[in-house]
């Protein structure tokens, strides 16, 4: 895999990004390109780079980036708004479409976790995107977040969000809180363990987020727009034991989507415990993704006449 910086601007902020290319010396160019969107906390060094390591040997170029306000990207620290992130993905598409080594007619989006909903939202209004894959994603922010909580912690979060609306309207600032006050991990033991053991290795992971971010998340509903992606294809892959983003998220997204669409449940697996480069389930997911992308990103025949 060859890697070089490919920063770009979104919403006036310079976003840190890397372009990963197949290590074939260049004869495969212009390459089909996959923009990979991270999940909650928005860091390229976690799963986006993992997908780059898996997909570049298969002939794809992969763009991995930090969302605005996270990692090495500019932007307001602590603001985690999926609506903003969809604009970041759109700007990423703008950037890769202008790189001559990449095929602007063969662009796909892959989103992990919250990023799965983000790529659905971006692709719904961007016809340049040829294919979309949502992996362990969400279909509705209110439902998926509510399902992470017990009633006591959910009601407390709703009360804090309501109070924060008035505070930021008056003072222009939102309260910063732990990200795990919003995305509650401790009710999903497998994910909680994986996050503690693996994801905190990434610098900056677990940084505080604003209550305005929670407000924006609850207003985020990719299922409302997923039907607009057709006739372009969508692939939805989800762990059938996922206790963080429950399987109903995948099923609802699939039900709201139009053909062509594909739903694959990973039997016996949850949200993220299999996310290691050499894990058989991760490899199986990549194989499914490769088959989907290969079909969706076939070069278009030249127009005659």
TrEMBL record:
<keyword id="KW-0378">Hydrolase</keyword>
<dbReference type="InterPro" id="IPR022742">
    <property type="entry name" value="Hydrolase_4"/>
</dbReference>
<dbReference type="GO" id="GO:0016787">
    <property type="term" value="F:hydrolase activity"/>
</dbReference>
<dbReference type="InterPro" id="IPR029058">
    <property type="entry name" value="AB_hydrolase_fold"/>
</dbReference>
<dbReference type="Pfam" id="PF12146">
    <property type="entry name" value="Hydrolase_4"/>
</dbReference>
<feature type="domain" description="Serine aminopeptidase S33">
    <location>
        <begin position="32"/>
        <end position="272"/>
    </location>
</feature>
<dbReference type="InterPro" id="IPR000073">
    <property type="entry name" value="AB_hydrolase_1"/>
</dbReference>
<protein>
    <submittedName>
        <fullName>Alpha/beta hydrolase</fullName>
    </submittedName>
</protein>
<dbReference type="InterPro" id="IPR051411">
    <property type="entry name" value="Polyketide_trans_af380"/>
</dbReference>
């Amino acid at each position: 895999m060859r890697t070089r910086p490919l920063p770009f601007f979104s919403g006036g902020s310079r976003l840190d990004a890397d372009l990963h290319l197949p290590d074939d010396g260049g004869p495969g160019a212009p390459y089909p390109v996959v923009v990979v969107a991270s999940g909650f906390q928005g860091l390229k060094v976690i799963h986006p780079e993992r997908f780059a390591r898996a997909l570049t040997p298969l002939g794809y170029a992969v763009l991995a980036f930090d969302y605005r306000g996270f990692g090495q990207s500019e932007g307001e620290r602590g603001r985690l708004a999926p609506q903003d992130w969809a604009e970041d993905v759109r700007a990423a598409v703008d950037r890769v479409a202008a790189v001559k080594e990449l095929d602007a007619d063969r662009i796909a989006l892959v989103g992990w976790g919250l990023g799965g909903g983000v790529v659905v939202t971006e692709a719904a209004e961007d016809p340049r995107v040829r294919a979309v894959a949502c992996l362990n994603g969400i279909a509705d922010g209110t439902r998926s977040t509510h399902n992470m909580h017990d009633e006591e912690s959910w009601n407390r979060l709703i009360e804090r969000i309501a109070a924060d609306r008035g505070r930021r309207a008056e003072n222009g600032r939102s309260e910063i809180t732990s990200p795990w006050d919003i995305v509650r991990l401790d009710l999903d033991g497998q994910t909680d363990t994986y996050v503690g053991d693996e994801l905190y290795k990434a610098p900056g992971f677990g940084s505080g987020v604003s209550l305005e971010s929670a407000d924006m998340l609850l207003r985020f509903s990719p299922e409302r727009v997923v039907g607009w992606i057709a006739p372009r294809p969508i692939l939805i892959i989800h762990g059938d034991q996922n206790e963080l983003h429950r399987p109903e998220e995948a099923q609802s997204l699939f039900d709201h989507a139009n053909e062509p669409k594909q739903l694959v449940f990973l039997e016996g697996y949850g949200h993220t415990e299999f996310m290691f480069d050499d894990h058989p389930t991760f490899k199986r997911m990549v194989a499914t993704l490769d088959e989907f992308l290969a079909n969706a990103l076939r070069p278009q025949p030249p127009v005659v006449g």
